[in-house]
Fold this protein.
Amino acid sequence: MFNRTAELYDAFYREKDYRAEACYVADVIRARAPRAATLLDIACGTGEHARFLAVDHAFSVDGTDIEPGLLEIATTKLPVATFHVADMVDFELGRRYDAVVCLFSSIGYVRTEQALRRALEAMARHLVPGGVLVVEPWFEPGTMTHGLVTLLSSELPDGTKACRMSHTTVEGRLSRLRFEYLIGDADGLKRETEVHELGLFSRDEMTAALDEAGLRDIAYDEPGPSGRGLYLAMRPG
């Protein structure tokens, strides 16, 4: 997804309050599991949530992402963590955690309801008995604006300037975001293009998938850390 623009990711999301969001997530985890100490961050990207969950809230954090370039950046921020290149739909790390989180709506990248069930089953397998799963959803069906255009611009510390324009289309239960980048430095200008596809899942579908994964005490927290809601569930035991 961000295989050619990893170095720009943090610059475009500079205004996102990762620290406050990590605090929110830590609070909901420890409200359910007060002794939670280990945490796995699924689709962790450049590791901003992971960094604050470790530094501010004393979790021992590991992470996964499908993009190696993003994990290289995450490793520089949190060298004590272990980051794995892995697809959230089907992964096995060989250990379990007190909490597993999937934030910033990354769950949408599974695209289909079948893949959603597989991803949540994989996350549930990595929980200890009594462990907590936290999933921040993407948008529900019927809530996205077809044809939405957005524009972000930023400057990197080395003076590189970049802007990203996106165009959103909605086709049934799939949202498609086309990103067009214009990047400028002393050597000139270059363009990059990415297409991101994210599935649109209803609350009933999310809840049913969590239940099928063998999780219990399922709840929906609104608005969640960033206004998109938050699903909470626990592994029995």
